């Protein structure tokens, strides 16, 4: 069954005309596609990325890959904010605005703007499920459903970082991870010089500019701008500390705090500065350290013009205004 998959096809595909194992990260079930891919991998010329070890036999693939490092997307839609790394992707997107759907189903009224979508739709009439899971009896009408199934049920992490051992089941998470290596921070604060690699990081930072703290502790005067902040704070009022260190008497009510504490015994400092020899056991400590190199001082006093790189320093400064 050409639609069936095995684990070799799921992760890597070996070119028939070459002894080199090629990490395609593709599920190749069509013999014609395999033949074309074999010729492509049998060629001697490779296009190499200047920022990492990525190599490809297709120049267009290198262009798309480079966008992962730079965050650049070259083709912009004139109707909305959509951007794409390939012109063909933009052409397909434009059909959403024009409503052009040239591919019509012969059984029902369904129409599609891509032939592949029509082919997938036709399987709902024929009952054909060509994409079979190699681990269980699951079968799917389309490849994307099988990929989702594999990631959800068999812990398949097909997106791997070329710089370290990081793997993930989502391409979006890999792109965010790669920014750790490249230092690319596309999300910028409109009120200060702060930049973040993730949109969630910018969202959290913007709260430092917001004096509104609607979440109040029922047992003390503590206030927080986020619900998660008050949830974490409430643990300080809880005497139950189920997480215990096996090396000393340390106890905590947060599993994450125990992991950080254990690094004191192991000496493990996985977060390394790209500018100097500094190493940290916590990512937050590394982020604070990096501001020494960037000069970024995102924490501002609401009473005067004082700025600082660390929030704890701002809290100590604010005590001066309370006297």
Please provide the count of β strands. 22
Radius of gyration, in angstroms, nearest whole number? 26 Å
Largest sheet: number of strands, sense, barrel closure: 2 strands, antiparallel
- Average pLDDT number: 77
CATH class of the domain at 215-266: Alpha Beta
Q: From the 3D coordinates, which CATH architecture of the domain at 215-266 would you assign?
A: 2-Layer Sandwich
Described by the principal axes of the CA atoms, the overall outline is: extended
List the main descriptive attributes of the protein structure presented here.
single chain; 323 residues; alpha+beta; Double Stranded RNA Binding Domain; two-stranded antiparallel ribbon; extended; disordered N terminus
Topology:
Elements: H1 7-11, E1 13-14, E2 21-22, H2 31-42, E3 47-48, E4 55-56, H3 59-70, E5 75-76, E6 83-84, H4 87-98, E7 103-104, E8 111-112, H5 115-126, E9 131-132, E10 139-140, H6 143-153, E11 159-160, E12 167-168, H7 171-182, E13 187-188, E14 195-196, H8 199-206, E15 215-216, E16 223-224, H9 227-234, E17 243-244, E18 251-252, H10 255-266, E19 271-272, E20 279-280, H11 283-294, E21 299-300, E22 307-308, H12 311-322
Short summary:
By secondary structure, the protein is α+β, with helices and mostly antiparallel strands.
Please tell me about this protein's structure:
There is one protein chain. With 323 residues, the chain is α+β, with helices and mostly antiparallel strands. Among the domains are: 48-98, Classic Zinc Finger (Double Stranded RNA Binding Domain, 2-Layer Sandwich); 215-266, Double Stranded RNA Binding Domain, CATH 3.30.160.60; 271-319, 2-Layer Sandwich (Double Stranded RNA Binding Domain). It is built from 12 helices and 22 strands. The protein has helices at 7-11, 31-42, 59-70, 87-98, 115-126, 143-153, 171-182, 199-206, 227-234, 255-266, 283-294, 311-322, and strands at 13-14, 21-22, 47-48, 55-56, 75-76, 83-84, 103-104, 111-112, 131-132, 139-140, 159-160, 167-168, 187-188, 195-196, 215-216, 223-224, 243-244, 251-252, 271-272, 279-280, 299-300, 307-308. The strands form 11 sheets. Strands 1-2 form a two-stranded antiparallel sheet. A hairpin with a 6-residue loop joins strand 21 (299-300) and strand 22. The longest helix is centred in the N-terminal third of the chain and has 12 residues, at 31-42. The protein starts with 6 loop residues before the first helix and ends with a helix. The model is unreliable at 1-28 (pLDDT under 50).
């Amino acid at each position: 069954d050409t639609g069936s998959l095995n684990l070799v096809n799921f992760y890597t595909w070996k070119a028939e005309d070459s002894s080199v194992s090629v990490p395609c990260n593709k599920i190749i079930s069509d013999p014609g596609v395999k033949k074309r891919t074999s010729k492509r991998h049998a060629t001697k010329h490779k296009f190499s990325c200047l920022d990492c070890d990525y190599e490809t036999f297709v120049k267009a693939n290198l262009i798309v890959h480079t966008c992962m490092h730079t965050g650049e997307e070259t083709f912009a839609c004139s109707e909305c904010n959509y951007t794409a790394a390939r012109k063909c992707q933009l052409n397909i997107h434009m059909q959403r605005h024009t409503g052009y759907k040239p591919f019509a189903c012969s059984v029902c009224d369904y129409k599609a703007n891509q032939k592949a979508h029509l082919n997938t739709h036709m399987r709902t009439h024929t009952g054909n499920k060509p994409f079979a899971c190699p681990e269980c009896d699951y079968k799917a009408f389309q490849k994307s459903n099988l990929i989702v199934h594999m990631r959800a049920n068999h812990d398949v992490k097909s997106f791997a970082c070329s710089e370290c051992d990081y793997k993930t089941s989502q391409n979006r998470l890999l792109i965010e991870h790669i920014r750790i290596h490249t230092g690319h921070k596309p999300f910028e604060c409109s009120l200060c010089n702060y930049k973040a690699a993730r949109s969630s990081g910018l969202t959290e930072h913007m709260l430092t500019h917001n004096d509104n703290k609607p979440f109040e502790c029922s047992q003390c005067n503590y206030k927080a701008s986020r619900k998660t902040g008050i949830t974490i704070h409430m643990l300080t009022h809880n005497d139950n500390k189920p997480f215990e260190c096996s090396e000393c008497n340390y106890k905590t009510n947060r599993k994450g705090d125990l992991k950080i504490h254990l690094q004191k015994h192991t000496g493990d400092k996985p977060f390394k500065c790209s500018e100097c020899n500094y190493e940290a056991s916590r990512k937050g400590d590394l982020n604070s350290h990096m501001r020494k190199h960037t000069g970024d001082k995102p924490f501002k006093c609401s009473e005067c013009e004082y700025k600082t790189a660390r929030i704890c320093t701002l809290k100590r400064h604010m005590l001066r205004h309370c006297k």
